[in-house]
Write a structure and sequence with these properties.
TIM Barrel; 363 residues; globular
């Protein structure tokens, strides 16, 4: 599939219809596209070679505006009804860095063994960020530059559980849950209050249609910490954020990887999520998840990243068609990847998925 052979059609974003489909108010409508993240490695050739827009890396305010213009254009021209954007408060962490095998960038992750906060002294000395000093310009710029009909789905990058495990390290958190639960509570509550202040700003943006955070709480066969610990420390904060969204008439969708079966009832009945994202066929295929929970919440995505990264074009197309005909036919469904579009997904496979749903559309 060559980019210069891709037909462009006029996009017709309609965020209100997108939300209507996922809430069951727009029955019989074709499933829309949804995505959590698309790596710049794939955005760049689409913008440069297909849309003939120069790529600009953000290094100052002027280049940031150009980058955000490209960012908006990408989501618009690919046929999404929304732009999804996130960034984080500046939390210092112990990070490990290596070369990204799928691009010329570096890939980083948080050290699972050495945390920044392991004692009360470290908690008191930690340089906690201040929401008042956060520059919300990227959110505000996108909000004020969206094409007609588009909405904004947004959040604080990284969730409560993720940041708890980042700051204490996964290993340190596991020990502290038994040895020093008061410290776990203090770190979680400090994070929660900071996130609350962050979300107070986001829910006031007039083009926001949903708060859509990511908080990976599971792995292949269960939750990363005991379900009861998630109920005690993390889920109450998700409940607060969901309430903040709902009070403004917004939806609260959750991206969370891993097997969350043990806390799904909590997420639906207590947190009151409006939709779930992130599925892996080896855990539970999205169509099986929909059979169990699709009458109560929206189902977002589901094309396994293994299929997108290693499948043939025909395998990708067949899987997408299957999900359109099964999950799509039941309603409250949007189609996209099971997780995100990382750098190692072949561009042709991503474009095939998008093309199968709505085709490529022009401005």
């Amino acid at each position: 599939m060559k980019l210069n052979n891709i037909p462009l059609r006029q996009p017709k974003p309609y965020a209100e219809r997108f939300i209507g489909i996922l809430t069951g108010r727009a029955e019989g409508s074709k499933p829309p596209l949804v995505e959590y993240l698309v790596d710049d490695t794939l955005m760049k050739p689409i913008l440069r070679d297909l849309l003939e827009r120069p790529w600009v890396d953000p290094v100052d305010r002027s280049t940031l505006e150009s980058y955000l213009d490209n960012f908006i254009c990408f989501w618009h021209r690919m046929g999404y009804d929304f732009v999804r954007f996130e960034t984080s408060l500046p939390f210092p962490m112990h990070r490990l860095i290596t070369k990204d095998t799928g691009s010329d960038k570096q890939r980083g992750w948080v050290d699972e063994h050495q945390g920044m906060i392991t004692t009360w002294e470290e908690f008191e000395k930690y340089p906690w960020p201040e929401v008042e000093k956060m520059d919300f310009f990227p959110y505000e710029y996108i909000n004020s530059h969206l094409p007609e009909g588009m909405g904004l789905m947004t959040c604080h990058a990284g969730g409560i559980y993720e940041h708890l495990s980042y700051l204490m390290s996964y290993e340190g958190l596991a020990f502290a849950l038994f040895d020093n639960p008061e410290l776990v509570r203090a770190v979680t509550d400090r994070l929660g209050e900071l996130f609350t202040g962050f979300y107070r700003h986001l829910v006031e943006l007039d083009r926001v249609v949903a708060i859509f955070p990511g908080d990976d709480m599971g792995f292949r066969s269960g939750t990363l910490i005991a379900p009861q610990s998630l109920r005690e420390y993390c889920l109450p904060w998700h409940q607060r954020f969901a309430e903040m969204a709902h009070q403004k008439g917004l939806r609260y969708f959750l991206h969370s990887c891993g097997c969350l079966e043990s806390i799904m009832e909590d997420l639906i009945e207590t947190v009151k999520i409006d939709g779930k994202h992130s599925y892996e066929d080896a855990i539970i295929p999205v169509e099986k998840f929909q059979e169990k929970y699709g009458s109560r919440i929206a189902i977002l995505g589901g094309v396994d990243v293994n299929t997108l990264s290693s499948g043939t074009l025909e395998e990708v197309r067949q899987r997408v068609r299957f999900l359109l005909e099964t999950c799509g036919a039941k309603g409250r469904y949007a189609l996209g990847s099971g997780n995100s579009i990382p750098s190692y997904v072949p561009l042709e496979n991503y474009l095939t998925m998008v093309d199968e749903v709505v085709g490529f559309q022009g401005c």
